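Sequence design from tokenized structure. All designs in this work follow the same two-part layout: the structure record, then the generated sequence. An example of the structure record is given first.
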């Protein structure tokens, strides 16, 4: 990282003065621009002011991510602004905002993991002396993510996180437990595209998912928070979820509203029916999903539309339904029950 075209302006500077003087620093950081301005007390070197950076290459900052995780990060620009406080050699940034745009991230084998259109961190409070980092809001839009379930059942992202955690544990063993306090606030994502691959199935399942909106009230683990999700598939299927839960795995109480979910896609996870396959059909469901120590449980209503089974040996349709509605459905890993089935035009 090169700092060029540097200019410094001081108004009435006296190195022994105890009264603040105005100071402005301007320069270029690579192709980006840097500006620092505020009040400097020369005798104590105390400073209060603002910092702004625009269009700065993200490479040097992303190098720290590459050291912590088995990733390669390429490209991107950073815009940043913050209030700066320097007193007795201690630095603090408050009300900071950092935006990262146009970064491509791969694993160490150069397999694409994510492309960041825009990620913005707001309300950052960084106190180096107190070793405290607080973040009010993390948002993103127009991002792409690869979510791969490998043949052994592991997820690509989980493997990356585990590798980073293992590295952190090694460092902690050498230097002792980290005293840093980290507080994470709200997460808000819009227009996120996810490429899902499940290699536990044969042939592997591939599916594109668009997350129009994902909002989590707080990223702090183990505390109740609000959750909201709106997602869709290319064929018009839609899923809406809202409720409350605890990260990372519950407990949670979520209201579910799903429409036109493709049954052939979901049937890939059902037991093999031999020569009979589910050739077409959609699922709509509305109800509440509860997740706790007993496992997930769903209570509500489900409707199957335009269901058609196909016998691959006889090349025949053994069953075709226009509508199958199930009321008062209660489903868990141990039991499925319902009070009413309604069938329209079986053939």
């Amino acid at each position: 990282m090169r700092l060029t075209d540097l200019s410094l302006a001081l108004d009435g500077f006296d190195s022994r003065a105890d009264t603040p003087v105005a100071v402005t620093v301007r320069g270029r950081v690579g192709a980006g621009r840097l500006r620092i301005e505020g009040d400097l007390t020369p005798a104590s070197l105390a400073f209060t002011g603002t910092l702004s950076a625009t269009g700065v290459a993200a490479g040097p900052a992303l190098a720290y991510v590459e050291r912590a995780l088995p990733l390669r990060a390429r490209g991107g620009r950073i815009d940043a602004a913050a209030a700066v406080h320097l007193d007795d050699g201690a630095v603090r940034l408050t009300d900071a905002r950092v935006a990262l745009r146009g970064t491509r991230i791969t694993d160490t084998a150069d397999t694409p993991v994510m492309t960041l259109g825009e990620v913005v961190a707001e309300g950052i409070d960084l106190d180096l002396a107190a070793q405290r980092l607080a973040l009010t809001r993390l948002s993103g839009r127009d991002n792409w993510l690869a979510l791969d379930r490998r043949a052994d059942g592991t997820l690509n992202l989980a493997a990356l996180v585990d590798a980073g955690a293992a590295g952190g544990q090694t460092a902690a063993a050498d230097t002792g437990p980290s005293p840093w306090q980290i507080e994470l606030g709200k997460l808000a994502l819009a227009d996120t595209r996810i490429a899902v691959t499940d290699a536990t199935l044969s042939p592997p399942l591939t599916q594109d998912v668009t997350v129009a909106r994902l909002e989590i009230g707080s990223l702090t683990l183990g505390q109740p928070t609000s959750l909201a999700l709106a997602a869709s598939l290319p064929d018009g299927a839609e899923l809406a979820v809202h409720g409350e839960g605890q990260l990372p795995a519950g407990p949670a109480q979520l209201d579910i509203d799903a429409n036109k979910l493709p049954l052939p896609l979901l049937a890939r996870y059902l037991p093999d029916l031999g020569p009979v396959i589910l050739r077409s059909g959609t699922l709509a469901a509305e109800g509440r999903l509860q997740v706790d120590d007993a496992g997930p449980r769903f209570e509500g209503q489900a409707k199957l539309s335009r269901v058609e089974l196909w016998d691959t040996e006889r090349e025949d349709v053994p069953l075709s339904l226009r509508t199958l509605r199930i009321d008062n459905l209660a489903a868990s890993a141990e039991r499925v029950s319902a009070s009413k089935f309604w069938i329209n035009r079986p053939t």
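Residues 164-175 have pLDDT under 50 and may be disordered. We note this feature because it recurs in several other targets discussed in the main text.
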